[in-house]
User: Fold these one by one.
Assistant:
Number 1:
Amino acid sequence: MVAFSSNILDSRSEYRTETELDDALKEPTTRYFAIAQGKLVMRVDGVAPEGLLAAPDLAAMQPQNADAVLIGWDRDNVAFIAMPVAIEADDLPEMYKAIDTRSVYRQALLTEEKLGAYAQGTSLVSWALTNRFCGTCGCAMTPKAGGYRRSCQACGHNVFPRTDPVAIMLIVDEANDRCLLGRSPHFAPGMYSCLAGFIEPGETIEDAVRRETREESGIRIDRVRYHASQPWPMPHTLMIGVYAEAKSLDIARDTVELEDCRWFSRTETEAMLSTALGQADASAPPPGAIAHRLMRDWLDWSR
């Protein structure tokens, strides 16, 4: 129901040996997501772009095996590896193009299953590239368990993949049957979305929802109910989608965080979701985004 959520690879994380990444690199059937400066390298000389590459495709891209991550295996026991490459995007051979993750998703350049696997792979590579050196003693880190863990060669300190939790909430005024949406300065023209914010250390999801909503809109929240989640690999976020009951109704928005914040009726929200598919003035996030899902499901529950 949301993008990046259909990864079917078996990571076998509890049973990995220290040779499996090297073994997979030697296997001719292994397939690769080549990642250049955070973008997916796709082969574009066929009928449709192809983002899952073979070893010969990577030969001219300066693959960085030391920072590669073995994502997992598919139903046919084919290994999938996320491979950072050192070549600059502008220097890629003519039949390849580096495409940013948001465009890969919005343009549906990968199947849902491949998109889910790529989301995991690019998040792991982003984490690996920012953990090349130990945060305790500064010495080099060595990948372990196919890249799912990194260990310091000097002091033995271990680090594990990072996920940043974000609460995203559709605030509902039940008495007046409307929802609260905001517009951030970096949004596409006319787009409104659910309010959202990072969950702070030591904070529950519910308290994060109440704090972020109060800070951004001035609205106080009563009940909070979990609905769905979404991996968001830009670079390694988990969006935690909830519905929240408004306890107050007068908006006092944070003018730095939001260009606008207002209540929308069901009719207006329905029109916005249609606009996400290309119709009218105000618009919603595109299908596949968890904000779109929260809005859509709120509307559908009354039917």
Number 2:
Amino acid sequence: MTANFTPREIVSELDRFIVGQNKAKKAVAIALRNRWRRQQVSPPLRDEIVPKNIIMIGPTGVGKTEIARRLARLAQAPFIKVEASKFTEVGYVGKDVESIIRELTDIAVKMVREDETKRVQVRAQEMAEEKVLDILLPKMSKEFEEAKSPEEAREELRKLLRGGKLDGKYVELMPEPPKPQMPSIEVVAATSLEEMGTNLRDLFSSFMPKGPKKKRVKVAEAMEILSQEEASRLIDMEAVIKQAIEKVEQNGIVFLDEIDKIASRSGEGRYGPDVSREGVQRDILPIIEGSTVATKHGMVRTDHVLFIAAGAFHATKPSDLIPELQGRFPIRVELDSLGKDEFYRILTEPDNSLTKQYVAMMRTEGIDMSFGDEALKEICQIAAEVNSQMEDIGARRLHTVMEKLLEEISFTAPEKGREKVIIDRHYVVSALSDIVKNRDLSRYIL
């Protein structure tokens, strides 16, 4: 079930991690809220309401991917990011577009299985504890000779186990042999050589299963191994797969990056790579329109999967996509380029800002590092300047500038011990000004 957030709450949550780009945040917030609204509609009409897919247009490094990723985390929905340029038309060598849904289903199964594991964790822990006591009690019976009954001895041992007094002791585990299964191989779902290879490995391993081997491990590790075994036994995988497929069909989000790379340039003839580009568009179309894809977990319908596409569209325009595909992305949002003011906000406002990350990493070495306000403004000025002189890579330029700036401190940090380091404007200028002035040098370093 989609989390019940209002569009305003979704935008404010995205604001914690992403600076600016309010138009894009609004568009994705409405799309997510529409999911919840659709769930409230009565069944006959509910199935007719399809998601309004979004195209985000903007240069690299302005937050397109981050918006989609944070949205999926917020919605607790199965999410996959794929590069549109990796796919090829059916008949060419490369990945086919249906693998997007297969991988999304795998992600959903993993998500649901993890949730179910947490749900049965306490019961699995109790069962693992009993198994460990069964192994330890015969070995330590002499130590509990004074106990009036076996039950008392077991409880005494349980107290020691829970108190961590037995964690250092070694025990021998005999893993339970897997349940015999009829060997099966998928041919329909495995359309790539890679997937076919995986299926063949599974087939031969089921023909020739390896016998269980005894393991000698510490008690703490034995508890972990046995609790995992018990948890997997308590989980009903059929129910997990059923729930995961429903999660994909109702709440799945696919982020199609670099969609501009599969658009044919206007005015060019339909030959060369453009033939394959248009072919990929035609192959993606049925999945976006709504079709049934065969996966190893079962058939998955894509009618209600939300597709968010993104591209820089430097050499092409959204109108260069085939008309049918354009019609499937009714919402178009332009993201703004970033300047020094936005860079300053990126370094100071988000919960996961670069400055906070570097300060936390240096603290692990005992160094108390801080950034002066003027220093941050100078960093932003340099990043904006380098972006204007060379390729504009948006906020990613801050990573290269910061890494170069703190290179010496990062290298010598283990030798310094406990020390206070203040990064001021003078330090920034002395570390970076020569590189920025020498355009040829900055082309390689920044």
Number 3:
Amino acid sequence: MSFSAQLLALPQWLAVFLLVAIAVSFSIVGFLIVHRFIPVQVRQIHNDVAGFVFATLGVTYGVLLAFVVIVVWQQYYDAEENVANESSTALVLYKNIVAYPDETASNAMQDGFLGYIRQAVGKKDTLRADQSFEGQEADINQLLSLIDNIVPDSEHEQILYTQILQNLNDLVKYRSLRHQAAHEELPSAIWLALIVGAVVTIGFTFLFGTENVWAHIVMMSLLAALIAVVIYVVIEMDHPATGVVNIGFPNSYSSILEIAKAPK
């Protein structure tokens, strides 16, 4: 299990506290080491130049953080939209199957589709844990084979049959996109840039010289805490199927099972 997955398995407040504690501890320990070996008077001499360089460095890292946050937020939004589309498509598909004039074919399609729905609802927690889609894949393939073998006998049946095929294809598409969103992560190169950028940005503050050491420590700690919180946001948004903030599960699946159980 990756560090991100382990972090998201924790309560949100504890995960944020852990990241903040790591960043703040690094800033304090690193500063005390530099403070011990490089006197304040020596560092004060270079404050003007260091301030100019730090401003450029801070803007560069800030732009990188903003870019990454926008990217992961857009990916999360798209994944959430796909789940909503999957939910509405599943409900429409079930209604079209029930409305199919041929009762024998309709019942067969209902049994196959409800089997897929039960499999999906029964394993929705497992999906978030290990991303296992194999059982549902078998059910959806079986339903596709069943529908392919149906031959409409009238124009009305042909219209509904075409709509059912379209709905099923859309359902498979949105389900695959949900599966893909659960697996996608930021490239390692971006994570490398984020971590190295955070270390360099925080570490650069060690080189400033201030008479009040405690004020220096407080300012560095606040900067480190802010960076840690933003990185947590990136981790949370980069894993839309896990954590406190997640895309959830298609709501209509449970509704379809309730409709199927209701007396006709």
Number 4:
Amino acid sequence: MPLPLLPRRAAFVAVAVSLTLVFLASGSPIPLYNVFRVEDGLSNTDLAITTVVYLGATAASLLVLGRLSDRLGRRPMAVAAVLLALSGCAVLTQVHDPGTLMAGRLLQGVACGMASSSLGSYAVDLAPPRPPWLPALITSTVPPVAVPIGALGSGALATFGPAPRLAAFILLAVALLVCAALLLRCPETVPRSRGALAALVPRVAVPAAARRALPGVAAALLASWSVGGYYQAFGPGITADQLGTDSPLVIAVVFGSMVLLAPVGAAITGRLRPLPTMRFGALLFAVAIGVAMAALAAGAIVPFLVASFLGGAAQGASSAAGMRLLLPTAAPTERAGLLAAIFLISYASAAVPGFVAGQLAILFDPVQLGFGVAGLSGLAAVLCLLLARPTAR
């Protein structure tokens, strides 16, 4: 006799927790980057390339697999994403060279891309009607915020727990296995339909009503995600070289400082009009990151962290506002494609500047590169002010 399906509200919780865990897992290796650098001889360039591999895999997964759950159903794609994240954790327990680290991050990147569209759409499908801003909060803030929370947990385990190179990956693998079992009991929200092979053809699917607003949202995403890629790639080295500590926990705090308050910013501004909120959030984020880079150059950790935390709240407000603009334009069978397009822009906004910064790391130090990324963020914020438009009616 088959097990009964979970009630809709319980299924929503299971899906939201699964989405969170996939991204928690993707943040777990980051505090160990400096351990790999010291114990295994990895260079700053190796770590920058690893970040690009992760971001590129995520973007490629979104481009190729992002619309598949609109055809095969949410549940099978959600389970596949969780199992890929589990596989990435397993590979990362064996890191002693750049290739193994990149392989683990590649698996995590593919998992995050699949989760962004399939689990994100699943959460929107199952979300309760109240509060109305909950789907936008989950889809806009879980991916960027769960990554640094995963880094904090991993950093704490590496600092205070046993088996610092293994503990976080093992715990997350067990939790992901439980989530996969729960997802198998969630009700399907999109029936299987024809067109799965056609859905694999790379195509950005944006509903017509959303296209007018998309350039402004894309500029806001570039402003924040370009800085996020920099923090991920260079945060461990900055913490060790500029701030004078190699503690995995402090590395995690530095990395997470930019996005940990994003849910707070999203929740506080959830009832405000999305268009001006997105504009103001993008501009405030760029200003905060400029202050953070100036503090970093001066070796002032407290102002650096304060400015980074403020930037995180501004990012949350801006990103959630962009989601509130775009999500209402998509029918249920268009949600995965729309979310895939949004996150494709997001990860490309981190991957391309991250790749350029990695190539320039032999010519410029991380602080100089940080000022370059802050300048890019400021330019993107100005573009957001100029390009932001309401959706078509």
